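Page 42, continued from yesterday. The earlier attempt failed because a stray header line got pasted into the input along with the sequence. Redoing it now with the clean sequence only.
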Amino acid sequence: MNDKSEVLKIALPSDGEMYQATLDFLKNSGVSVKRGSSRQYLGSLQGLENVTVLFQRVADISSKIEDGSADLGIVGLDRFEEFKIDDGNAFVVCEDLDYSNCKLVIAVPQGWIDVSAMSDLSDLALEFKHTGRELRVATKYPRLTSKFFYQNGINYFKTIYSSGTLEVSPLMGFSDIIVDITSTGTTLRENQLKTIADGTIIESQACLIASTRSLINEPEKLNSARKFIAMIEGYLEGKDYYNVTFNLNADNEEDAANTFMNSITTNGFQGPRISRIYTTNGSSSYSLTIVLKRKNLQVVTDNLREIGASNIIVNKPDYVFDGESNLFTKLMNNISGKK
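This time it went through. Structure tokens are written below.
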């Protein structure tokens, strides 16, 4: 049995919107999470040994990675950027896991018809200062808010931290404006708030983070991390590709390859995989398969019709693995100090 210090610890959200979304993401990535009950704070990953899952509050995951209590973690990029320590031990391995997408935005009362941009907000903050008070901003993200305001020339304001529902703060007189996470903007509008044109502080989504402190000089942990990251990367890469199989009449394999490669705008990864079709009528026909990116699908299918291809079948691969994992290489470079 492995020593506890050599077991890879992965921190995942224990509740909230990201909890089920993260479980679904990992299941689709081929590493399903096993948890006895919602009250248990330890779990495991199906198919991966030497791994313990730690269920944590979203607000605590970054700090767990920072202090080395966990080795890898999944958290919202907004949370990581708010709580990370500059030049600390935690770093981002994959910035976009393609779920839990949202934006951290500035929202002002709909009645402020003259405020539609950051420049307007800057002027308003200055007016408030001349009347002897500060612009009050309610938020769960004081660090990101302050940095963004200063970058946009707003120097006279006061952040008010609130862990509760922010949308009602202006209506209750608790604040003048808010900075909060939104996906659709519906809740903001229902509470008589509006966003401003250049008031998006960060576009966020689930991300994968890691700890330098706990992974350095830990070969067993790193081996488990490599396997875990490879499955995630393979799943994410697979989303962007399609397998396209089609039939083409040709005298031989070389003829089929030349007809395809001389007429199609992209050859896929390297070129087509070709196999002979043993037809019932004795005609010379070949089946070709290519793997191509989503953005090229429509153009290629049009090209195939133009060269007389038939029985065009398109399906998605579950995973696409490269020769080596770019994300794991990034992790190793960070651990070794290569930024």
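Notes: The chain has a mean pLDDT of 92.
Reminder to self: strip header lines before submitting.
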